UniProtKB/TrEMBL annotation:
Record's keyword terms, sorted: DNA damage, DNA recombination, DNA repair
Protein name stated in the entry: DNA repair protein RecO
Residues in DNA replication/recombination mediator RecO N-terminal domain copies: 8-81
Organism this protein belongs to: Liquorilactobacillus vini DSM 20605
Domain of life: Bacteria
Pfam families named among the record's database cross-references: RecO_C, RecO_N
Length: 254
């Protein structure tokens, strides 16, 4: 069963599902313990005292018992806040679900996320406040590539380290090529400069400093296609939430 320790921790409820007749299993992204599955006894009973604290897209400070590799437990919660729009708006909900599913795939269970807890918290908060969810998702996708082992060089030309001028992205070189080195990869992605600019910017961006962002819809489509190509070829995930976004037709297809 592994070891159990009592702890107070911040968490964001990712999803939950019914378990047995009266109980629930609740997956929570925690600040110090990563993604953990909690067994919540009596959660399906009417008037359950922790009901508000285990709704999806709730953020709270919890007190409970964390198990290293078995189910964990919640005893109490305080400072309970809901991402109201993520709960109520099916489109925002779909983006937020994808974001957490992607992070869960990148980090796995029980892996502490370090600064990524607040980065994801900020991403959800921005989507909840109606920042363009497609762009917030793009930013997280670019940054999570490192955790999927892709580590693309989006700083400078991988050959000569030129930092200005025209660039393209080369999957075989794992990063940028400057115009002088385009010839090295005829199968480079042929991205337009605006799309590349945003990919490079997103790689560095601290979401806590994001005040506003506006990206033209053609560039948004290009970003979506570029990231789909990189994720399909180099990460190879098959996430339900991504298919759902495609089905909702809010996710451009290529
Ligand atoms: Zn170069």
């Amino acid at each position: 069963m592994g070891q159990t320790q009592t702890a107070e921790f911040a968490g964001i409820v990712f999803f939950r599902r019914d378990y047995r007749e009266r109980d629930m299993l609740v997956k929570i992204l925690t600040d110090n313990f990563g993604f953990k599955m909690f067994f919540v006894r009596g959660a399906r009973k009417r008037g359950f005292r922790l009901g508000a604290a285990i709704l999806p897209f709730t953020q709270a400070n919890y007190f409970g018992a964390i198990s290293t590799n078995g189910l964990s437990f919640i005893n109490a919660a305080k400072d309970v806040e809901h991402y109201q729009n993520l709960l109520q708006d099916i489109e925002l909900n779909a983006y937020a679900t994808y974001l957490l599913e992607l992070a869960a795939a990148a980090f796995g269970d029980s892996q502490p996320l370090g600064g990524w807890f607040s980065q994801l918290q900020q991403a959800l908060s921005l989507i909840d406040r109606h920042f363009d969810p497609a762009i917030i998702v793009n930013i997280i996708e670019v940054q999570l590539l490192n955790f999927f082992g892709v580590k693309p060089n989006l700083q400078d030309c991988v050959i000569c380290h030129q930092t200005t001028g025209a660039f393209d992205f080369s999957e075989s070189y794992g990063g940028l090529l400057c115009a002088a080195h385009f010839h090295l990869d005829p199968r480079r992605m042929h991205l337009d400069q605006r799309t590349l600019y945003f990919l490079r910017t997103f790689a560095q961006l601290d979401l806590r400093r994001l005040n506003s962002i506006h990206v033209k819809s053609t560039t948004k489509n290009n970003l979506r296609q570029a990231l789909d190509q990189i994720y399909d070829n180099e990460v190879g995930l098959n996430l339900k939430s991504r298919h759902f976004l495609e089905e909702m037709k809010i996710w451009p297809k290529h």
